[in-house]
């Protein structure tokens, strides 16, 4: 095994042009609880372009040499080395994980990745590496939003903002399994057809019609019982009007509150929750990371039972990541872009 590897790195914040393919040192096990993974594929997620753009390049525990940051917060691959104290996986196992991609912990835009074995679990058996790479972050985020925050029950009228995106199309499948009535916002007819195929009752083209009016016509009264804001920014404030009185609003994107403050939410007695799956890693909270890894195991079981599938928008090499990130930020993707690192 070579002591070097290829990786896609950033050394300063900026647009896609700051991404650089470099030869860097292959990582080594930090202790006997780690595994070394030959990364086969990685998801291209919003957190990746946000970290690239916003300058999350180094942290207090990063290298004193200020090593370049390797993005990529999830990945899929094969265990090629395991510490002596590792008991849950073995060399040769095909695994997936959510780990790294932040300053101080290199991500999966690289040929090799070191992860604590506690935080990896078997990938779905029915998926190849590319198919599996489209799932970890979006499936885990949607899992926390739908099952842990929203408390959706059968018959609830639910609005999913960004239903054709990586998060949205997974959430729709979870919600369908719960017996929810589903509306979703889309930007074109191709996305509308896609979400209807997944189980959405209605697709609202927000560029051509009023979301509030469409919800009223669908439900017979204002708003949805539960609203998932997977778009954020200005859409978060707009979602207050899309949520029914005593409804639940779940947001996954850092956003500004309405200019009126929390008044609109308090007036309607809204229950507002937030999901940030990166917090356990950044805060180094072991128990919450174990909880997330357990959820990834349950997600793999859903996939293998045929109850969950991912839509792949495109598959790219290192040199195509910049354009994929641009398209993802612009809302032009249908499903999740994937980085193919090793086809061997």
TrEMBL record:
Q: Which UniProt keywords apply?
A: NADP, Oxidoreductase
Has the keyword Cell inner membrane been applied to this entry?
no
Q: What's an example of a GO molecular-function annotation for this chain?
A: NADPH binding
Chain segments annotated as coiled-coil in the UniProt record: none
Where in this chain does the record put each Enoyl reductase (ER) domain?
Answer: 14-339
What is the protein name given in its UniProt record?
Zinc-binding dehydrogenase
Keyword hit for Ubl conjugation: no
């Amino acid at each position: 095994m070579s002591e070097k590897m290829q990786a896609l790195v950033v050394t300063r914040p900026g647009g896609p042009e700051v991404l650089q393919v470099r030869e860097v040192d292959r990582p080594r096990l930090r202790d006997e609880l780690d595994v070394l993974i030959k990364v086969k594929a990685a998801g291209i997620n919003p957190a990746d372009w946000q970290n690239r753009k916003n300058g999350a390049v180094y942290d207090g525990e990063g290298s004193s040499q200020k090593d370049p940051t390797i993005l990529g917060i999830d990945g899929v691959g094969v265990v090629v080395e395991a510490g002596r104290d590792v008991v849950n996986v073995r060399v040769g196992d095909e695994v997936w994980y959510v780990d790294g991609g932040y300053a101080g912990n290199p991500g999966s835009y690289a040929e090799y990745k070191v992860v604590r074995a506690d935080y990896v679990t078997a990938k779905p058996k029915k998926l190849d590496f590319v198919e599996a790479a489209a799932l970890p972050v979006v499936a885990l985020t949607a899992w926390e939003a739908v099952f842990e925050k929203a408390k959706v029950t059968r018959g609830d009228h639910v609005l999913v903002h960004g239903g054709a995106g990586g998060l949205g199309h997974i959430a729709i499948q979870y919600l369908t399994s719960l017996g929810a009535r589903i509306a979703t916002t889309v930007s074109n007819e191709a996305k509308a057809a896609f979400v209807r195929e997944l189980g959405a009752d209605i697709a609202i083209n927000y560029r051509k019609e009023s979301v509030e009016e469409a919800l009223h016509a669908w439900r017979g009264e204002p708003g949805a019982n539960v609203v998932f804001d997977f778009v954020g920014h200005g859409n978060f404030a707009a979602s207050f009007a899309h949520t029914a009185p005593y409804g639940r609003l779940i947001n996954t994107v850092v956003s500004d509150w309405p200019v009126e403050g929390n008044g609109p939410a308090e007036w309607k007695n809204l229950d507002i929750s937030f999901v940030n799956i990166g917090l356990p890693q950044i805060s180094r909270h072991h128990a919450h990371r174990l909880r997330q890894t357990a959820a990834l195991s349950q997600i793999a079981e859903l996939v293998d039972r045929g109850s969950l599938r991912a839509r792949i928008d495109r598959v790219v090499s290192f040199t195509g990541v910049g354009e994929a990130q641009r398209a993802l930020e612009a809302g032009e993707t249908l499903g999740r872009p994937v980085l193919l690192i090793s086809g061997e």
